[in-house]
Amino acid sequence: MGKVRKEKKEEGGGKESVKTEKDTNLFDELFGKDGKDLDAAASSTTKAKKERRPRPKVNYDLLASADGLPLLYKKVQSSKINPDDPYESIMKMRRLVEEWQLHLIPAFNFDDFLDKTEGLSGNRHVKVQM
Question: Are 58 and 120 in contact (CB under 8 A)?
Answer without folding.
Answer: yes
